[in-house]
Design brief:
Protein name: Glycerol-3-phosphate cytidylyltransferase
CATH topology: Rossmann fold
CATH architecture: 3-Layer(aba) Sandwich
Organism: Candidatus Fukatsuia symbiotica
Distance between the termini: 55 Å
Mean pLDDT: 96
Bound molecules: cytidine-5'-triphosphate
GO molecular function, one term: nucleotidyltransferase activity
Pfam families: CTP_transf_like
Low-confidence stretches: none
CATH class: Alpha Beta
Helix content: 25-40%
Number of domains: 1
Shape: globular
CATH superfamily: HUPs
Keywords: Nucleotidyltransferase, Transferase
Length: 135
């Protein structure tokens, strides 16, 4: 039984998020997802998420491919999260390539190719543009 873990904000849930989570689950038997807290997201991306952490957590928890969720409070606690969850594999999108190689001593680190042409940021931009064109 292999435990896979991944981390992310998963704000304004989209198909790139779903593909990443489904492929992550296929690498093992259990998928655990650490959802960035609102405070961590502000620190990491310098913006407030559209959906608060409890809503993002509820959405991810409801997916068939996800077995467990928790709130990730701090990037510095990543090693603890991996150890406490007994993770065999850490999965991240390839926008993070190389950034988590330090954890290769306690688990396998795999970077999956991002789904092209979609991101939370681009969706928000499209919505903003549409709003402007209706004025
Ligand atoms: N992801 C992906 N393909 C995409 C977008 C995201 O595989 N098109 C992956 C990321 O690589 C990450 C996880 O989904 O492992 C969560 O990404 P997140 O940062 O929450 O999503 P983004 O859409 O990249 O958000 P933003 O635009 O705010 O950076």
């Amino acid at each position: 039984m292999k435990k896979v873990i991944t981390f992310g904000t998963f704000d304004v849930f989209h198909i790139g998020h779903l593909f990443l989570l489904k492929r992550a689950k296929q690498l093992g038997s259990q998928l655990i997802v650490g959802i960035s807290s609102d405070t961590l997201n502000l620190k990491k991306k310098n913006k407030h998420p559209i959906y608060c952490q409890d809503e993002r957590l509820a959405i991810i928890r409801s997916l068939k491919c996800v077995d467990e969720v928790f709130i990730e409070e701090s990037l510095e606690m990543k090693r603890n999260y991996l150890i406490n969850n007994k993770a065999d594999i850490l999965v991240m999108g390839d926008d993070w390539t190389g950034k988590f190689d330090e954890f290769n001593d306690i688990c396998r680190v795999i970077y999956l190719e991002r789904t092209p042409s979609i991101s939370t940021t681009s969706i928000i931009e499209v919505i903003k543009m549409k709003k402007i064109s209706f004025l």
